[in-house]
Write a sequence for this structure.
Protein backbone atom coordinates (compact mmCIF):
# COMPACT_ATOMS: atom_id res chain seq x y z
CA UNK A 1 0.00 0.00 0.00
CA UNK A 2 1.38 3.40 -0.93
CA UNK A 3 1.44 6.31 1.50
CA UNK A 4 -1.25 8.11 -0.51
CA UNK A 5 -3.53 5.07 -0.28
CA UNK A 6 -2.89 4.95 3.46
CA UNK A 7 -3.97 8.58 3.88
CA UNK A 8 -7.32 8.08 2.17
CA UNK A 9 -8.33 5.04 4.20
CA UNK A 10 -11.59 5.83 5.98
CA UNK A 11 -10.29 4.74 9.38
CA UNK A 12 -7.18 6.93 9.31
CA UNK A 13 -7.53 10.36 10.89
CA UNK A 14 -4.46 12.56 11.28
CA UNK A 15 -4.21 14.78 14.35
CA UNK A 16 -5.05 18.39 13.59
CA UNK A 17 -3.60 21.42 15.34
CA UNK A 18 -6.89 23.24 15.92
CA UNK A 19 -8.56 20.45 17.90
CA UNK A 20 -7.40 20.94 21.45
CA UNK A 21 -8.42 22.17 24.86
CA UNK A 22 -6.44 23.32 27.88
CA UNK A 23 -7.57 22.49 31.40
CA UNK A 24 -6.14 24.09 34.54
CA UNK A 25 -7.03 25.50 37.91
CA UNK A 26 -8.70 24.20 41.03
CA UNK A 27 -11.56 23.62 40.57
CA UNK A 28 -10.59 22.37 37.11
CA UNK A 29 -11.63 24.72 34.35
CA UNK A 30 -11.59 23.93 30.66
CA UNK A 31 -10.06 26.97 29.01
CA UNK A 32 -12.10 27.22 25.80
CA UNK A 33 -10.50 30.63 25.28
CA UNK A 34 -7.05 29.12 24.59
CA UNK A 35 -6.05 30.21 21.08
CA UNK A 36 -2.57 28.66 20.92
CA UNK A 37 -0.50 26.37 23.11
CA UNK A 38 2.89 24.75 22.75
CA UNK A 39 3.16 21.06 23.40
CA UNK A 40 6.02 20.21 25.75
CA UNK A 41 9.51 20.10 24.27
CA UNK A 42 12.30 17.92 25.62
CA UNK A 43 15.95 18.93 25.14
CA UNK A 44 19.02 16.79 25.63
CA UNK A 45 22.31 18.49 26.22
CA UNK A 46 25.40 16.80 24.85
CA UNK A 47 28.60 15.88 26.66
CA UNK A 48 31.73 15.83 24.52
CA UNK A 49 34.67 13.68 25.55
CA UNK A 50 37.98 14.25 23.79
CA UNK A 51 40.18 11.26 23.07
CA UNK A 52 43.97 11.45 23.20
CA UNK A 53 44.09 11.03 19.41
CA UNK A 54 42.17 14.30 18.95
CA UNK A 55 38.80 12.77 18.09
CA UNK A 56 35.63 13.42 20.05
CA UNK A 57 32.91 11.13 21.34
CA UNK A 58 29.50 12.54 22.20
CA UNK A 59 27.03 11.31 24.81
CA UNK A 60 23.49 12.46 25.66
CA UNK A 61 23.27 14.24 29.01
CA UNK A 62 20.32 14.90 31.31
CA UNK A 63 17.15 16.09 29.59
CA UNK A 64 15.37 19.35 30.36
CA UNK A 65 11.86 20.48 29.53
CA UNK A 66 11.22 23.84 27.83
CA UNK A 67 8.49 26.07 29.27
CA UNK A 68 5.21 26.20 27.34
CA UNK A 69 3.36 29.31 26.22
CA UNK A 70 -0.42 29.59 26.10
CA UNK A 71 -2.22 32.50 24.43
CA UNK A 72 -5.80 33.11 25.51
CA UNK A 73 -8.56 35.28 24.14
CA UNK A 74 -8.98 37.60 27.11
CA UNK A 75 -12.68 36.81 27.55
CA UNK A 76 -15.32 39.37 28.17
CA UNK A 77 -18.73 39.70 29.69
CA UNK A 78 -21.85 37.65 29.12
CA UNK A 79 -25.25 39.07 28.26
CA UNK A 80 -26.01 39.79 31.92
CA UNK A 81 -22.77 41.82 32.28
CA UNK A 82 -21.22 39.21 34.54
CA UNK A 83 -17.58 38.28 34.00
CA UNK A 84 -16.87 35.84 36.81
CA UNK A 85 -16.82 32.76 34.59
CA UNK A 86 -15.93 34.37 31.28
CA UNK A 87 -13.00 36.68 32.02
CA UNK A 88 -9.67 34.90 31.56
CA UNK A 89 -7.82 37.85 33.13
CA UNK A 90 -9.76 37.30 36.34
CA UNK A 91 -9.10 33.55 36.22
CA UNK A 92 -5.33 34.06 35.77
CA UNK A 93 -5.27 36.56 38.67
CA UNK A 94 -7.19 34.09 40.86
CA UNK A 95 -4.73 31.29 40.07
CA UNK A 96 -1.81 33.65 40.68
CA UNK A 97 -3.25 34.67 44.07
CA UNK A 98 -3.75 30.99 44.96
CA UNK A 99 -0.05 30.48 44.10
CA UNK A 100 0.80 32.87 46.92
CA UNK A 101 1.27 36.07 44.92
CA UNK A 102 -1.49 38.46 45.86
CA UNK A 103 0.30 41.78 46.18
CA UNK A 104 3.46 43.48 45.01
CA UNK A 105 6.56 42.13 46.71
CA UNK A 106 5.04 38.72 47.41
CA UNK A 107 6.24 35.66 45.56
CA UNK A 108 4.54 32.57 44.33
CA UNK A 109 5.44 29.31 46.01
CA UNK A 110 5.89 26.06 44.19
CA UNK A 111 3.71 24.04 46.55
CA UNK A 112 0.94 26.62 46.36
CA UNK A 113 1.32 26.81 42.58
CA UNK A 114 0.90 23.05 42.33
CA UNK A 115 -2.29 23.27 44.36
CA UNK A 116 -3.59 26.29 42.40
CA UNK A 117 -2.94 24.78 38.97
CA UNK A 118 -4.14 21.39 40.18
CA UNK A 119 -3.12 19.81 36.88
CA UNK A 120 -2.33 21.57 33.68
CA UNK A 121 -3.60 19.38 30.86
CA UNK A 122 -3.25 19.83 27.13
CA UNK A 123 -5.70 17.57 25.34
CA UNK A 124 -5.65 16.98 21.62
CA UNK A 125 -8.99 15.79 20.26
CA UNK A 126 -10.16 13.91 17.19
CA UNK A 127 -12.98 15.01 14.88
CA UNK A 128 -15.58 13.39 17.15
CA UNK A 129 -14.37 15.38 20.18
CA UNK A 130 -12.82 12.29 21.75
CA UNK A 131 -9.42 12.31 23.39
CA UNK A 132 -6.52 11.47 21.06
CA UNK A 133 -3.54 12.61 23.14
CA UNK A 134 -3.14 14.13 26.61
CA UNK A 135 -0.12 15.95 28.03
CA UNK A 136 0.04 16.35 31.81
CA UNK A 137 2.47 19.00 33.09
CA UNK A 138 3.89 18.03 36.46
CA UNK A 139 4.44 20.78 39.07
CA UNK A 140 3.53 23.77 36.85
CA UNK A 141 4.01 27.39 37.88
CA UNK A 142 3.89 30.79 36.16
CA UNK A 143 7.13 31.97 34.63
CA UNK A 144 5.63 34.95 32.80
CA UNK A 145 2.22 36.59 32.40
CA UNK A 146 1.55 39.14 29.64
CA UNK A 147 -1.85 40.81 29.96
CA UNK A 148 -1.58 42.20 26.41
CA UNK A 149 -1.59 45.58 24.75
CA UNK A 150 -4.31 48.06 23.94
CA UNK A 151 -4.39 49.93 20.65
CA UNK A 152 -6.93 52.40 19.23
CA UNK A 153 -5.90 51.45 15.68
CA UNK A 154 -6.74 47.75 16.02
CA UNK A 155 -9.96 45.77 16.26
CA UNK A 156 -8.18 42.55 17.27
CA UNK A 157 -9.40 40.57 20.25
CA UNK A 158 -7.56 41.19 23.51
CA UNK A 159 -5.13 38.43 24.41
CA UNK A 160 -3.34 37.18 27.50
CA UNK A 161 -0.18 35.13 27.12
CA UNK A 162 1.27 33.03 29.91
CA UNK A 163 4.49 31.08 30.05
CA UNK A 164 4.44 28.08 32.35
CA UNK A 165 7.48 26.26 33.71
CA UNK A 166 7.13 22.68 34.95
CA UNK A 167 9.37 19.86 36.18
CA UNK A 168 8.45 17.29 33.57
CA UNK A 169 5.53 16.08 31.50
CA UNK A 170 3.69 12.84 30.91
CA UNK A 171 1.83 11.90 27.76
CA UNK A 172 -0.99 9.43 27.35
CA UNK A 173 -2.67 8.25 24.18
CA UNK A 174 -6.30 7.16 23.93
CA UNK A 175 -5.61 4.19 21.66
CA UNK A 176 -2.13 3.27 22.86
CA UNK A 177 -1.12 0.27 24.91
CA UNK A 178 -2.71 1.85 27.96
CA UNK A 179 -6.20 3.32 27.62
CA UNK A 180 -6.25 6.65 29.44
CA UNK A 181 -9.96 6.63 30.12
CA UNK A 182 -13.08 5.98 28.20
CA UNK A 183 -13.36 8.56 25.49
CA UNK A 184 -15.67 11.33 26.57
CA UNK A 185 -17.16 14.03 24.42
CA UNK A 186 -15.33 17.24 25.27
CA UNK A 187 -16.75 19.40 22.51
CA UNK A 188 -20.46 20.12 22.56
CA UNK A 189 -22.22 18.75 19.49
CA UNK A 190 -24.67 20.92 17.64
Amino acid sequence: MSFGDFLVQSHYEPKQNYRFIVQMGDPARIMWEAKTVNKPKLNFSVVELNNVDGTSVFFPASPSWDPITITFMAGGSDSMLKTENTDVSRGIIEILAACGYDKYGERQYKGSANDAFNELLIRQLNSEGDLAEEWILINPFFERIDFGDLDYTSEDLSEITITVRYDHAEVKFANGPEIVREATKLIPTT
Remarks:
- The longest helix spans residues 88-98.
